[in-house]
Amino acid sequence: MSLILGIETSCDETAAAVVENGRTLRSSVVASQFDAHEKYGGVVPELASREHLRAIVPVVRRAMEKAGVGWADLAAVAVTRGPGLIGSLLVGITYAKSLCFVRRLPLIGVNHIEGHIHAVLLESGDVPFPALALVVSGGHTHLFATDSGVTYRLLGKTRDDAAGEAFDKVGKLLGFGYPGGPVIDKLAVYGNPRAVKFPFARMKGNALDFSFSGLKTAVLRWVQAHGMAEEIALRKRLARPTVEEWLQATPQATLDLLASFQYTVVEELLRHAAACAETFDARSLIVSGGVACNSALRAAAARAQLPFPVFFPSVALSTDNAAMIAAAAFPKFERGEFADYTLEPQASLSLA
Ligand code: KG4
Ligand code: ZN
Predict the structure, then answer these.
(1) What's the 275 CA to ligand 1 centre distance in angstroms?
(2) Ligand 1 lining (C-beta closer than 6 Å)
(3) Left, alpha or beta for 175 (phi > 0: left; psi -120 to 50: alpha)?
(4) What pLDDT, on a 0 to 100 scale, did the predictor assign at position 352?
(5) Global pTM?
(6) Pick from 42, 179, 252, 296: CA 20 to 30 A from residue 130's CA?
């Protein structure tokens, strides 16, 4: 039995988890920094590093306690080495290195995007390979082909905004605060997804690349043309409203706009998966990252009649967590792929 402690500090969650043999979740602790960043309407990198410093020790301690293990039980420590905010990554990496030095444990560096893919492999052990993997989060929109979850070939990525970033920018523009994805998901069910016809992005060159900035601009134009300043200002004054309170402050036309925006993002994502199905001999599709929480995306994927099954992580493991880092580290542990103390954070580390 090999227990790996995973540590994740790439953005605005301080997370630690213990995973057994890459498959059995023993504990997963995530400390959100939402309160620290909320009033700025987005993640403030310098604040994020300081919050990680504050949280890292209690979060790791709690993950070890919940798993019921001691330092001597660990086989290795895995840490996110990138991509992400450099100062935030540095906190996790420095802490992991110190732990390994003091406890004489091997250190494993993990790519955050690979972690998102392994969240699915951790929970659904029987994913058939070769697989397509769509990672959709606040920072990434990447489509990969993978033979076994060890090596990856990049098929397409966003040329501008990530899918989650589009949700966040539209949410902020319309006065729904940050992050926009979860609120839009909850409110879009009350709107008509066919009410506003947004165009799909047409890509020159690699047709499997994504683009969401045109859609974001189309929403902005719609807002400017419909004189929405008053309702947006009203929503901005609400303090942590419930869904009912959001609904009271949101006219039907705006709910239709949200539903239409979300519909366009979901179609854009699934259109790419369907296009891959024609070209690649894939036996499954893995969808992961924060946007994989989206209920319309999950429902549309189930309806899409793709020629392979689609696997999502549970909602808890879709957004950033450390269980996915510990799970992705296990195959590296088995291969003896260890890092040394020169391991450094890489803000724009790529996977393929
Ligand atoms: O994976 P994640 O926690 O962090 C990154 O690696 O970026 O993803 C966060 C992103 C945010 O952009 C957030 O708006 C989006 O995931 N998100 C959602 C939903 N829940 C989170 N987007 C759409 N629908 C959701 N239910
Ligand atoms: Zn992420």
Answers:
(1) 24
(2) 11, 137-139, 164, 167-168, 179-182, 185, 289-291, 293-294, 319-320
(3) left
(4) 84
(5) 0.96
(6) 296
